[in-house]
Structures are given as structure tokens and as C-alpha cells.
Target: Peptidase S8
Amino acid sequence: MICKNPIFYMAFSGLLVACGGTSKIASLPLETLEGKNIPSISEKPNKDDLKTWPHRDLLTSGYPGISLEKAYNALKGRKAQTVIVGVVDSGVDINHEDLKSIIWTNPKEIPNNGIDDDKNGYVDDVHGWNFLGEINQENLEYVRILKSGDTKNPDYQRALDKYNKEYQDAQGKVDFYSQIKERIAQSDALIQAHLGKKEYTLEDLEKINTSSEQLQGAIRGMKYLLSNDVSVKETLEELTDGIKHFEERLQYGLNKDFSPRKTILKDNPDDINDKYYGNNNVVGPTAEGALHGTHVAGIIAAVRHNNIGIDGVADHVRIMPVRTVPDGDEYDKDVALALRYAIDNGAKVINTSFGKEFSPHKEWVYDALKYAAQKDVLIVNAAGNDTKNVDVQLTFPDDNIGGKEFTDTMITVGALNYEYNENLVASFSNYGKNNVDLFSPGVEIYATVPENKYKFLSGTSMAAPEVAGVAALIRAYFPKLKAREVKQILMESGVTPTVKEVLVGGRGEEQEAQRMPFSSLSKSGKILNAYNAIILAAKRSK
Model:
């Protein structure tokens, strides 16, 4: 049963703040969950529910979303400034129907004249910069460490161990997925031949009476798929994508003979002062390669209420694409320069949905993060998808040296599932009481992908831009607040789940799930809530 009180309160609060005054918003109480009636969702959500769950309100829908519409109701009538959000990622499709009107344009650069009009070293950087040039694929960082041949490197043996494990795993996954794909295709063909039709239902399978062991086995497999609401076509497509992923990992990421940077960019990746390289094509050489960054950009700021595609989190935003992340591991040098580029060109929020286990030049990235703090820029970082405690097993970029945080303008985000129960935390999400700050929606997130398409993706890569969007919302409507204040507001205004213990990892993974207190998984012990964030921002902005 849906609780009526929150609905009434939301309507009342919208009326109360219609005049848009900060004092009116600031007078609203922060929403809490303790003692509240939270609707229970017993069935698996349909695709329409999944498309909107990240923005929903937990008290009125049962989904642990960010209460976005309540936040906008509270903001009605209030003026906002435009905020530039840097998307340091794989590239962004700047011509996408739901993004093209909110892409940042460099006001100091004359398009396509071949001149560095703004004298920043990057020619014709009209919509951002591409530090990868024509590179799509890259080695993983531990492969680059091995290729250096420096056995005295303290990370060398760990890199070798990682390489051996990952190479064997990738080869095993290719073989395993190929076998499953072949088996499903054969089973599907057998059933089609028996029934005399290409499409069939679970009911059709139940009616088949056969003594053929081969056909019986095919029926068992197809029953399993159909009873889980998964089509044969979708399964075969996912297996094909999985095989392709691991084949490319073997061909590029884990291939010690693959060195695209030497022949394409021709810069020195170990020289931070060799900084003017790449090109102005912020999409990248292929549309497919920009999928990740386009999805991230859409989560943050896809045009709202235009009856196209999706609604992003934030209005009054301009997305600045900085292409830095290949299919493989990003270089520390590219990350450091990308952050500085975004900062120097006016970004006030920067999303970094990437990460890696090894970071040979982490000091360059640390310096860039410190520069962001000096320039009042908030960095929103994805915690990673390895189901690990990042207090113990570090992932980069991070904001601490020797366990001590060196900047107060970086916020690291774990991922939530759409189930408000023991499965609240995404099975893949990293966690850490010290090094993860907050959790937000990151499972089955529907957003923009290249060539005017939309897709569901999951990852802390999707959770971070939800937070970046709310950060941009705060900076647009309460511009006096500093980046460090915005970080604190996001953490303090989150809601504390009434689900006290959750499963971490294990669901569908090799390791078993652990039952842990939700409060132990992040510094705040909370989940993102845009409505509360707006109220607290109003209080702090007085």
C-alpha cells in the first residue's frame, strides 16, 4: 500500500515554495525514512518502471531513487545559472538528439579555422578535446608495466600475477560463452523444427511430449530462459557481446605486442609536460567507442521535458566532453591533463566514471585533483565494479595518500540496485567506509547512447553521474556554495536506509555474497537524495 502522507506533503510543499524564495525552501524539513511506510514491490519491474526508477521517490514508489521531481517542485520559480559539467570519458556523441542542445561550446574558439584562437594549446577545441586522438583500444595498465621490463618496479610482480590470472580468465570466458551460445542456438533450432514455427512460448514448451533426450534437454534450457522473462534472441545477443568483449580484451588489452600510442599519438606518456596532442573530435573515431561517455552525459543532463528519449538529472547544464578513456586502461597523463583542461575552461563539476588498479604516475593525477580544489571544482568519481573493499584494495583515481584524504572536493560513489531489500547494493559495486562517500542508483540505468539511441547499462559509472547531476543542480540554483560545501551537502542530505544489512557481491559472481551493515559501506552511510540536497543547500546558502 502506498503511503498517502508523503504525497500530500509533496503537493503542499510544491505550493509553499512556488514563489521560489530560498527561505521557503530552507524552511522545509529534510526527509527521513525511519518509521515511514515504504511501499513493497513484489514483482520484477517492467521496462517502463526501470526507465524511471533512478529519479523516483522511495516513499511513494518503493524504488530507492533520488526523489528528483520533489526537488524540482521545491525549486519552482527559482532562477538558476548555467553550470558546465566536464565528462572525462570515452567520448560523447555531441549530435545526439537528446544532447546536442546542451553541449558546451568554447566561446573563445572560432570553429574549424585551424587556429588556436584562445591560445590554450588546443586548436579548434570548439566542444572539448580528445586526448586519445584516433585510439579506441589500449593496453591495461598492468600490461604496460610488464612491457616496460622494469623488474625492479615494486608493482611488477603484482602486475605479472594479475596478467596471468586475467589472461587465463579471458580465454576461459571466450570458450565458456561460445559453448553456451552454441548450445542455446542448437536447442532453439530443435524446438523450432519440432513445433514448426520460429516463435514459441513457455506454454508451447509445456505441451511438448517427447521421448527424445536431446529435445528434452533443449526444452529444459528454453524453459529456464522464458520463465525468467528472457528471450532467446536477447540471450544470444548478450553472449555474442560477451564473446566479443573478451576476444578484444585478449587482442588489445592483454596483448603485450599492441602499442597504438607509439604510432598514433606519438607523444611521450611519461612526460607530463608533453601536453599538446590529440584532436578536437570529442566523439572519437567510431560512434560505438563513445557509448560509455554518451550514456554518462545523458544521465547528467539529457534535455528535460522535450518528449524525446529521457530526462537527465540537471537542467541549466552544458556538457563538456573530454575524451580520455579508451577500451583498456586510461593513462595517468591523459587523466591529469583532461582534468586540467576541464577546470581551465570553466567546468564546475567533473564526472570521472573510470578507474584502474595500477597507477604509475598517480602524483600527476593527485596534483590535478588539488588544482580542482584550488579552482573550486567538484570531482564526482565512480567507486568501481570489482566488488572489493577499496579501503583495502585501492583503485585509482583516489583522493588519499597513505590513508589520509588530501582534497575535500572529490566525492566517490557506489552503486545501488532498484530493490529496496537485502539486495539494495549492486552486486558489482566497490565499497569502503573511508574511500567511498555515498551510494546512488547504478543498476539498469536507461540513458542516451550514440546515433540517437538509448540503452540500459549498469555500473558505478552510472551511479556517479546521478550524483554529478545533483551537484550541478545545486551549483546552478545555489551558486554561492563552494565545491567542498556541495560535497558535504550531498553526503549529509542523503537518506539512511531502513534496510540495515545488505548483501555485498556474490549474486552471479564466483565469490559468495557477504552480509554487511549498509552503514559500513561508505563514509556517509547514506543514499543520494536530490530533494534533501536542495533543502540543505538552501539552508547553507542563506
Remarks:
- Residues 4-72+84-139+259-540 form a domain with the Rossmann fold fold (CATH 3.40.50.200).
